[in-house]
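Bumping my old thread because nobody answered last time. Still need a sequence for this structure:
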């Protein structure tokens, strides 16, 4: 039995000795941007305040609390990296600093969190002890627990050095169980919090057992945190669709829970998991691989940062874990793109700390068995999860995401029927993401319909709504949303039909209303956008690392006949990483209309699309779209029944003005 003789607690000189707040308050109140991470990790927030990218200095109690969250999390991450490295290489300097951090945190935790739940947390929060939120406690505790786990497992004879951490590990596991119980009692078992509370419970319990000298882990079936009634495997099945999407359909929160699952499965053989849970975890990894562009860009569907170096590190960690769980996880491009983003951080030393390398080099590996070998069919050109309403269309040089499902609860946006457009690495028309939640005005803006490339009615935000698939085949998808007194826009309906043509993507959006209203389709780029009228069409030029060209036409009608449809360019905020970055927005609107139809043909440059003739013109007839090409060919696309029979017969380009 390993000796548990106490080691004097020596607080690491860099550790904060205050409780943390809520990281979402780490935002400039003037500009809506996340504040600078310079000086993190450290013991205390800068005395003069924290700077924002636009030159402000912010020093409030909320910002100080948020800074402390980020510093605590960064120190816990450092302890974990050092512990993994010491366990792998035997490096004594890494071990000594890791032990000092962990023993120091045991002292800090007893001093500042021993009094129970955080008294300054907001009323709506599931209260934590070291932080405002129990979720934040759990994320921090997973890093701390894995650090202890690595050191105690690699060198059982010196596990007694970690005995001072036992009280902290036991307390965090107990707190995780209590917080999970409150979620279950409130009918919120499927919350993303549960995944991290289970991870904290399992990791800290296992770490404490190793310090106490127990080298034998319980079987998966006997581990309450994994296979219990409210454990990880039950949560994965309850909180995701059979197709693998986390129920909120948020890219960020999807990756967030998958990472928690894989972190909690350390030491287990993937093949020993129950088949249904094992297959679901593989499907959840596959969702990310399918959503990402070939260049590794992950569209930020619903709530989540648009670009954030700290998040990029989470993607590299997840990619490493996924590769250990399933062979050919398909996230190599995501990891490579994330490394580039992480390296762009502003003084955050985590970007070069080597966590991903340690995970990939661990012996015998993160899991207790080899990666699962899974036979996967070829990726289809059009893939749809109808339960969450996310479709991915992979065309020639164009990667499109069509969002049409449920709102997504508290992490949802008013993005019904939004069409995001990407190249391999270029965000031509992305989902704009979300600012830190502590800025209510910008948070509301980025959740609004005006921030997304959607149909709007009277420039108002709609009610929450759920769309549905009307038709789909190997090359196209047609989706619809209907409004009533409690859903979307009362008395209105919209349909969007997206088709992968020969060297282009065809997008047709149609809206109807029960009375004359302003019907608008928005274009929301994150690249320089040129817009010009050319006869009866509008042409757009989307520039970036890769180029995209659009040819557009529209028509509309009201009670007295045809109504002009005007494409108006207006300055607007760029995506949520910096609301002050101005972009050219297009509002393509019909005033006093009862119906409107907009048709767009998007074409990547010839090299990206593999050659083929350029599109020169597009016509919208009553029941079909005609795409004219430079070589004289005309592609005719019949419209689905939901779109056919528009307000006027004949070509519709004449109704378009700019």
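Sorry it took so long. Here it is:
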């Amino acid at each position: 039995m390993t000796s548990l003789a106490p080691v004097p607690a020596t607080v690491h000189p860099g550790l904060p000795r205050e409780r943390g707040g809520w990281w979402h308050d780490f935002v400039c109140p003037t500009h809506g941007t996340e504040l600078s991470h310079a000086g993190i990790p450290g013991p205390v927030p800068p005395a003069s305040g924290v700077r924002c990218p636009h030159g402000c200095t912010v020093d409030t109690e909320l910002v100080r609390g948020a800074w402390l969250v980020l510093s605590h999390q960064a120190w816990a991450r450092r302890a974990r990296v050092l512990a993994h490295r010491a366990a792998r290489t035997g490096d004594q300097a890494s071990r000594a600093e890791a032990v000092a951090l962990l023993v120091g945190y045991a002292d800090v935790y007893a001093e500042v969190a021993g009094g129970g739940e955080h008294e300054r947390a907001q009323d709506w929060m599931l209260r934590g002890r070291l932080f405002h939120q129990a979720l934040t406690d759990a994320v921090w505790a997973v890093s701390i627990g894995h650090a202890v786990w690595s050191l105690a497992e690699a060198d059982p004879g010196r596990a007694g050095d970690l005995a001072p951490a036992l009280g902290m590990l036991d307390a965090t596991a107990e707190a995780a169980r209590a917080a999970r119980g409150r979620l279950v009692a409130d009918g919120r078992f499927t919350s993303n919090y549960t995944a991290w509370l289970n991870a904290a419970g399992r990791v800290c319990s296992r770490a404490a057992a190793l310090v106490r000298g127990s080298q034998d882990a319980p079987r998966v079936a006997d581990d309450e945190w994994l296979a219990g009634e409210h454990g990880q495997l039950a949560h994965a099945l309850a909180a995701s669709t059979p197709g693998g999407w986390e129920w909120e359909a948020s890219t960020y929160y999807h990756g967030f829970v998958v990472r928690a699952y894989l972190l909690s499965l350390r030491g287990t053989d993937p093949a020993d998991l129950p088949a249904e849970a094992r297959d679901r975890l593989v499907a959840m990894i596959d969702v990310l691989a399918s959503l990402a562009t070939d260049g590794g860009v992950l569209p930020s569907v619903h709530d989540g940062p648009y670009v954030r170096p700290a998040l990029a590190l989470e993607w590299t960690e997840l990619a490493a874990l996924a590769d250990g769980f399933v062979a050919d996880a398909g996230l190599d491009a995501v990891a490579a793109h994330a490394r580039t983003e992480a390296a762009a951080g502003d003084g955050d030393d985590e970007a070069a700390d080597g966590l991903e390398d340690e995970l990939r080099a661990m012996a015998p590996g993160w899991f207790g068995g080899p990666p699962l070998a899974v036979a996967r069919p070829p990726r289809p050109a059009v893939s749809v999860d109808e339960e969450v309403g996310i479709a991915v269309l992979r065309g020639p040089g164009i990667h499109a995401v069509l969002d049409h499902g449920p709102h997504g609860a508290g992490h949802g946006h008013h993005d019904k029927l939004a069409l995001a457009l990407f190249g391999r690495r270029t965000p031509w028309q992305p989902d704009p993401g979300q600012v830190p939640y502590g800025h209510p005005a910008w948070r509301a803006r980025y959740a609004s319909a005006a921030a997304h490339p959607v149909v709007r009615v009277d420039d108002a935000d709609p009610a929450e709504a759920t769309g549905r698939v009307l038709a789909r085949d190997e090359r196209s998808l047609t989706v619809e949303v209907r409004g009533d007194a409690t859903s979307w826009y009362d008395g209105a309906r919209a349909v969007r039909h997206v088709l992968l043509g020969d060297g282009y993507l065809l997008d047709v959006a149609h809206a109807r209303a029960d009375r004359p209203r302003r019907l608008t389709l928005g274009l929301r780029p994150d690249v320089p956008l040129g817009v010009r009228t050319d006869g009866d069409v509008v042409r757009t030029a989307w520039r970036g690392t890769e180029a995209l060209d659009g040819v557009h036409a529209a028509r509309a009608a009201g009670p007295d006949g045809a109504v002009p449809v005007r494409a108006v360019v207006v300055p607007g905020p760029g995506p949520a990483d910096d609301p002050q970055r101005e972009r050219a927005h297009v509002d393509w609107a019909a005033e006093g209309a009862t119906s409107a139809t907009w048709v767009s043909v998007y074409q990547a440059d010839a090299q990206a699309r593999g050659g083929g003739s350029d599109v020169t013109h597009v016509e919208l007839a009553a029941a079909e779209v005609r795409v004219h090409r430079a070589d004289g060919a005309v592609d005719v696309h019949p419209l689905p029944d939901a779109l056919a029979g528009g307000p006027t017969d004949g070509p519709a380009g004449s109704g378009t003005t700019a």
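The chain has 14 helices and 21 strands. Let me know if any region looks off to you.
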